[in-house]
Design brief:
Blueprint (H helix, E strand, L loop, with lengths): L15 E2 H11 L6 E5 L12 E2 L9 E2 L3 E4 L10 E9 L13 E5 L11 E4 L3 E4 L2 E4 L9 E2 L10 E3 L7 H9 L4 E5 L3 E7 L3 E2 L10 E2 L2 H11 L3 E8 L3 H12 L4 E5 L10 H8 L1 E4 L2 E4 L5 E5 L2 E6 L3 H19 L10 E5 L3 E2 L5 E10 L5 E5 L9 H5 L2 E5 L5 E2 L4 E6 L5
Parallel strand pairs: 1-20, 6-7, 14-17, 14-18, 15-16, 18-22, 20-25, 23-26
Antiparallel strand pairs: 2-13, 3-12, 4-11, 5-7, 5-8, 6-10, 9-10, 19-21, 21-22, 23-29, 24-28, 25-26, 25-27, 27-29
Bound molecules: adenosine monophosphate and magnesium ion.
The site of adenosine monophosphate has 20 residues, from helix 3.
């Protein structure tokens, strides 16, 4: 028995359910571990290589949350009138550097350090001031309107944990604790090439029977959005020796290889056979549409995705299988897929036994809930369906018909970048 005859794997046998294919992919991924140090702005989108502890309190000192007057709550009588003498002002970056004594107060602006002796800020709207005489009309609770030193982050605490992605808030937080450089995991390196005798590079005129290679552009776009290091190996003809050389070259130094085309059962589809010899195939058929002939395996230390050639199939299989693998490879923890429940605008007929990814347009309906409709042509070669859509409509494996008005899961493209 060759590996191709294995139950659940062969081209002609039953294909692997998508959820199982994804489990197998994720089980095969070992995240990168090498790290590099860089300025925090450059580190945006990268993954923290280690925990970062703060050396300082944030805020560094007790400060005012309001524009108002800083006072000593303990000195004040229980009932009005509360009259205090104004002895100075504290502004953000310009502290009042004397002590506030009994019966005294200090004009204070948001962010200014609360002067020594004071513990409470009364907002200016509750105060009548006349030169150095200040009358408070409504007394705040002791400690009100004061942001305490260390209430955001305490000196010595872990401010950011390893494995977290540096989003805008994270680089801002690093800045808030005075850290200008971050240790982040290196980016995974992804090598990719297109296969096909019919492919022509953009910028050159096509010969009869040729088409432009678009997959290398959609793949470039999807990879670039994931922040990986890209190795573009161009187009490789449908020649076994050239394909073999291409795979070997791709495996040198790449963590992951993506190819498009050549994995189906046509006469010029050599990749599965070649890969079987060179590497270890995990599966080559997934119960999804578009994208059934999708190969996954390992070649040396690299993971391999042999995606089908049809332009929509490439994108659907990349998003459903390669993207989660790349996110894990990047060092990110489990990623929860974003699914929105939407009302189906028209009945969708489908075939049970595979997960379908229809191209849809998601919009807000009358009551503000989501409504989704298929975009026009759903063929796996119709790339314009991807440009006109803003989501995948996900039809589960067991479904045969989705009635108009019923709920269906939708994957917004916005969540797939
Ligand atoms: P294949 O998977 O190689 O049988 O290709 C399936 C279909 O996708 C064929 O119509 C190919 O011409 C088309 N195709 C394959 N590779 C590309 C590519 N890089 N760009 C655009 N179309 C492609
Ligand atoms: Mg081909």
């Amino acid at each position: 028995m060759t590996t191709r005859d294995k139950a659940g794997c062969g081209h002609d046998g039953p294909a692997l359910p998508l959820s199982e294919a994804l489990d197998r992919v994720l089980a095969a991924v070992t995240p990168v571990s090498e790290s590099e140090r860089m300025p925090i702005r450059e580190a945006l989108g990268r993954v923290m290589a280690r925990d970062v502890r703060s050396a300082i309190d944030v805020p560094a000192h007790d400060n005012s949350a309001m524009d108002g007057y800083a006072l000593r709550s303990a000195d004040l009588p229980d009932a009005a009138p509360w009259k205090l003498r104004l002895i100075g002002a504290a502004l953000a970056g310009r502290p009042f550097d004397a002590r506030v004594g009994e019966g005294e107060c200090v004009r204070i602006m948001t962010g200014a350090p609360v002067p020594e002796g004071a513990d409470t800020v009364v907002m200016q709207e509750r105060v009548e001031a006349d030169n150095d005489r200040v009358q408070i009309n409504a007394l705040p609770a002791p400690g009100a309107n004061v942001r305490l030193a260390g209430e955001d982050i305490r000196a010595g605490d872990v401010a950011l944990s390893a494995g977290g992605q540096l989003r805008p808030a994270h680089i801002g937080l690093l800045a808030s604790i005075g850290i200008s450089e971050a240790d982040v995991l290196r980016r995974p390196r992804v090598a990719f090439f297109s296969t096909g005798d019919e492919l022509c590079e953009v910028g050159t005129p096509t010969e009869p029977g040729q088409i432009y290679d678009s997959n290398r552009y959609t793949l470039f776009g999807m990879l670039q959005r994931l922040g990986v290091e890209i190795v573009d190996l161009g187009v490789i003809r449908d020649r076994p020796d050239e394909l073999e050389a291409g795979l070997r070259r791709a495996a040198e130094g790449a963590d992951l290889i993506v190819t498009s085309g050549g994995v189906s059962v046509g006469e010029a589809d050599y990749l599965v056979e070649i890969f079987e010899r060179l590497g270890q195939i995990d599966f080559w058929s997934v119960a999804m549409k578009p994208g059934r002939p999708t190969v996954f395996g390992t070649l040396g230390d690299a993971l391999y995705f042999g995606l089908p050639g049809n332009p929509v199939s490439v994108m659907a299989t990349f998003y459903q299988l390669a993207r989660p693998a790349i996110l894990k490879l990047s060092g990110l923890g489990l990623q929860v897929p974003v699914l929105i429940s939407a009302t189906c605008a028209a009945t969708i007929e489908t075939k049970a036994g595979r997960t379908e990814f229809l191209r849809g347009v998601l919009s807000r309906g009358e009551q503000g809930h989501y409504v989704v409709a298929k975009t026009g042509h759903q063929g796996s070669g119709i790339l314009s369906s991807m440009t006109q859509a803003n989501c995948f409509i996900v039809i589960p494996e067991g479904a045969e018909v989705i009635e108009a008005g019923s709920q269906v899961d939708v994957q917004p493209f916005e969540a797939l970048v």
